[in-house]
Amino acid sequence: MQYPGHLSSKLPRVGTTIFTEMSALAQQHNAVNLSQGFPDFDPHPKLIEAVSNAMKSGHNQYAPMGGWLPLRERIAEQIEQRYGTAFNPEDEITITAGATQALCTAMAATITEGDEVILFTPAYDAYAPLVELFGGTPVYVKLQFPDYHIDWDQLQHMISHKTKMIVINNPHNPTGAVLKEEDLDRLERIVKNSNILLLADEVYEHIIFDGLKHQSLLSRSALAERTIAVYSFGKTFHMTGWKLGYAVAPQNLMKEFRKVHQFNVFSVNRPAQVGLAEFLTDGSQWEVGQMYAQKRDEFLKLVSSSRFKALASHGSYFVLMDYSAVTDEPDMEYAKRLTIEKGLASIPVSVFYNVPTDHKVLRFCFAKNSETLERGAEILNTL
């Protein structure tokens, strides 16, 4: 069936996401799925029990629009403990239906026709369509291969009187790169005395390795005062299907955020919020970095004899693998062939760029149980 009238698409260049495409291909060919970023192991049993108890205790109707207050209080406590910055849980923290909804709401509340938004490529594929959806124009700054660091001089050059926002993704998806303290120094100097907003996608804040410290934009008052920061319970506590995240911002920015939030979702899953608040009375539950570091190291050891070369991954639960010693095929073609013919699904990194850029690297998710990682590595070792 087709709509008989004329419809002018607001996103004419947007199709199905690469994550959906590769996961569907993996399912079709019964491939080991190291493509889409979701764990294949369960959340902590105490968390499942806490959410179950919340449902049994009658927490089955709407949550408050801003979110279950005890959960917002747990968030405020850990932010102040980790970053030394105090946020009021009443009016500066909002629980959202996942991080992507928070990103969408943040842009809907702030981006207007003609605004420019600076994105760093390779970029998570939701950013540019959201900018365009609300009338903005994406402006792209390419991260420097192979460690994917930011060229701050290039960023400075790309800023104009139309620049409304800079999107910072740290730890970075898809590359696993993380910001250093000197990066925040440069960012602080660049936005000083401007009206530029910062949208901080920090969904992997707790998944950082090698003794490094997460350099959150919330850790500096000069950045925090102009930042909407977005986080994901799903990424941290390996329950991405619950679609639960949160946003943190100064009161005047959060006021605008909630004006949109109340009409696109109003509120989100109450029993999950109540259960999480109970679960997080034990503050040590936030600490998942060591577990994921072990999984990264396990995967890298398993593929160490392959012809794939791992690029540095200091955060997130992804690692990029250089396959140039195996084939010179374009990464999109090779990723599909690897899935169909060899039974292993990954993500081609070129799809995260606005212009064709193919460094012959694929993204693999190591947030998997040992059996899955072993099966994936066995395939890579035969290539």
From TrEMBL:
Swiss-Prot/TrEMBL keywords: Aminotransferase, Pyridoxal phosphate, Transferase
Domain of life: Bacteria
A Pfam family: Aminotran_1_2
Location of the Aminotransferase class I/classII large domain: 31-379
TM spans (from-to): none
InterPro entries the UniProt entry points to: Aminotransferase_I/II_large, Kynurenine-oxoglutarate_AT, PyrdxlP-dep_Trfase, PyrdxlP-dep_Trfase_major, PyrdxlP-dep_Trfase_small
Coiled-coil regions, chain positions: none
Record carries keyword Ligase: no
A molecular function (GO) term: kynurenine-oxoglutarate transaminase activity
Cofactor(s) this protein requires: pyridoxal 5'-phosphate
Signal sequence bounds: none
Recorded GO CC terms: cytoplasm
Stated family: Belongs to the class-I pyridoxal-phosphate-dependent aminotransferase family.
Protein name: Aminotransferase class I/II-fold pyridoxal phosphate-dependent enzyme
Originating organism: Phaeocystidibacter luteus
